[in-house]
Amino acid sequence: MTPQDLQPEELPHGAAARRGPFRAGERVQLTDERGRMNTITLTPEAAFHTHKGFLNHAELIGKPEGSIVANTTGQLYQALRPLLSDFVLSMPRGAAVVYPKDAGQIVTMADIYPGARVVEAGVGSGALSISLLRAVGDRGYLHSFERREEFAAIARGNVETIFDGPHPAWQISIGDFQDEVVKAEEPGSVDRVVLDMLAPWECLDAVATVLAPGGVWINYVATVTQLSRTAEAIRADGRFTEPESWESMVRGWHLEGLAVRPNHRMVAHTGFLLVTRKLADGVTSLALKRRPSKTEFSQQDLDAWTPSSVGERAVSDKKLRRAARDAVATTQTRGHVAPAVDENTAGGTADETADDGSVEN
Q: Positions of the region Disordered (predicted)?
């Protein structure tokens, strides 16, 4: 039996939604003749408006992916489903997302495999959760921990949008990771730990408790000071292997005839990744020989690790309420019942501003 012979209900979760003609409730990427891109959510009665006319959503519903359609003034648009990297950068958000370049590195360098048991903290808008769920698959396990209910609501909506409904391998809990994970997971039962938070060194004991021997712990941090303190805390703890760190930078290329050159802009520093592995119980890590260096932190260093000091911008409650409503509304448009979002914690407007300043009604 080939994948083409499988019924939709037999396919991995969300796969059926990536195939076939466009359906109401789907997000569709429209690219015009100048390469400008807009993402819309197909609604039978709605239209995509620009200063050059409008395009009724109904003209796209039922058409095959890759179609080219014209609006009321003859403006042509190429219609495709957004790739995961496109979706992550255009989805409703309340916090900065983990960029696709970093999510890909995390999945590969942490060896997130189908069926793995993974816990993560710092869900934000759910961008990394989506990549982790794709990696562990329907028979895997992902338990996400988030301190704020508003972020959890946004993440739920985005995950259910990309997977066309709730994912069977995912659960999300509200609370501090270091307190909640040891209550929810048995000691040594977790294969991988992924942390995207301000102070991952505070979670050393919790990670050491739930992570299985040989399991991977990967951290995503924004600044050099965070990276340094996390690495030194892991070394001093002795229950993990020597930490390794890296960052990735992505630069596109301009391709037009003989004018082939690097683009002037690139996705440079977004964060550092630091990875280590859990040693067997009772084993102490090897003391690697290295040149003496200053490893102690002054009070001034410790005071530097605050959200404002490391460049983390505060997110207004109004923005969070709007992002939560937008994320949940998308799942409801596709016919799925998402967890109710209270009017006091979910906001937004009826119109959605597109990437080029146009308005979708």
A: 1-24, 306-361
